[in-house]
């Protein structure tokens, strides 16, 4: 038995099982401990461990998130209840059954709503759990915006010759201020991608809280309408399906947060769409400009960034109440055409 399992389960009978999909930041394994199947996640970075532990501990007992069964600070690791081996939403979107993929989107929206409702009013608990493990802030979107100029200067400016105007950053910080703390804020996974869940008989279990934050719910709801801003499997969905998912989300939240049925929430969502669109276009421009090759893992079938960026920039350009952002998005899209052969963003394979 290795050091991590020995530290987590002293004296227990442990049988190592399958290595599950992780990342360059984590290693995820299914193991059997004294006859019970659990999932062990090891972390290369302290922040991801701290955020996931704090977010899930703050949601403990709500039934909206996976249960944390154990925790190790050195080495950094968490033990979760095993949610099973069901398909993720990304598996369904990359499959061949449009009905299953459609139902998956709707079930995912229900799961997200349950997490948001469970997290309402738990800011202090989440902050205390996070402070016990790290000094990272509980909110992070303003920091994301603050990091955009350096990324743009390194990866886009030398090729595109286009400045990132301060007016864009001012508008994005304004969106972060509006969609920050307040009555419509909750604990969120902050990376609610279609592969960060497991299908169970009761619906999807959201399983990745490495980016857990306290933030306005519109940032997560926009994953249905951008769609999937931070994700590798960011294919388009049929418009009517996105609206079905959004209505299911509202149905799951409105009893606790009637704000989701107001014109103000529609504005919140539109601003989150525009902000995500321009933020992620800045993030992904390097790949679009340097070859945009298929992912080496054949399981990861993702749209080319040369298709994704024009779609996102069109969303940002439509944000007329963010005039600097809208102008920049149009200029960005025009400059991109001089360097990249763009193409329409296709529907997810299940709908093709």
UniProtKB/TrEMBL annotation:
InterPro entries: Aminoglycoside_PTrfase, Kinase-like_dom_sf. It holds the Pfam family APH. Residues 22-234 form the Aminoglycoside phosphotransferase domain. This is Aminoglycoside phosphotransferase domain-containing protein. It comes from Actinokineospora bangkokensis. The lineage of its organism: Bacteria, Bacillati, Actinomycetota, Actinomycetes, Pseudonocardiales.
């Amino acid at each position: 038995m290795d050091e991590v399992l020995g530290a987590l389960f002293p004296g227990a009978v442990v049988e190592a099982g399958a290595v599950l999909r992780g990342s360059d930041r984590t290693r995820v394994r299914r193991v059997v401990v004294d006859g019970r199947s659990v999932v062990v996640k090891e972390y290369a970075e302290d922040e991801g461990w701290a955020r996931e532990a704090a977010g899930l501990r703050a949601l403990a007992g709500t039934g909206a998130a996976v249960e944390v069964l154990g925790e190790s600070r050195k080495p950094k690791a968490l033990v979760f209840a095993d949610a099973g081996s069901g398909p993720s939403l990304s598996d369904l979107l990359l499959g061949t059954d449009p009905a299953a993929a459609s139902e998956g989107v709707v079930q995912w929206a229900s799961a997200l709503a349950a997490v948001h409702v469970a997290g309402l009013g738990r800011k202090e608990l989440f902050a205390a759990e996070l402070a016990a493990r790290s000094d990272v802030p509980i909110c992070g979107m303003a920091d994301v915006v603050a990091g955009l100029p350096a990324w743009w200067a390194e990866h886009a400016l030398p090729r595109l010759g286009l400045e990132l105007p301060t007016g864009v950053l001012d508008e994005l910080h304004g969106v972060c201020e509006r969609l920050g703390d307040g009555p419509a804020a909750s604990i969120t996974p902050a990376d609610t991608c279609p592969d960060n869940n497991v299908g169970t008989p009761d619906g999807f279990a959201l399983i990745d809280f490495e980016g857990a934050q306290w933030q306005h719910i519109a940032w997560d709801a926009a994953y249905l309408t951008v769609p999937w801003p931070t994700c590798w499997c960011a294919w388009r969905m049929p418009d009517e399906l996105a609206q079905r998912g959004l209505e299911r989300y509202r149905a799951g939240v409105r009893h606790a947060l009637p704000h989701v049925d107001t014109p103000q929430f529609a504005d919140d969502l539109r601003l989150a769409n525009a902000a995500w669109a321009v933020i992620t276009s800045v993030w992904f421009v390097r790949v679009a400009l340097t070859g945009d090759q298929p992912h080496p893992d054949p399981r990861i079938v993702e749209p080319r960034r040369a298709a994704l960026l024009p779609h996102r920039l069109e969303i940002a350009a439509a944000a007329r109440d963010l005039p600097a952002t809208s102008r920049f998005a149009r200029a960005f899209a025009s400059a991109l055409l001089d360097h990249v052969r763009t193409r329409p963003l296709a529907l997810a394979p299940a709908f093709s």
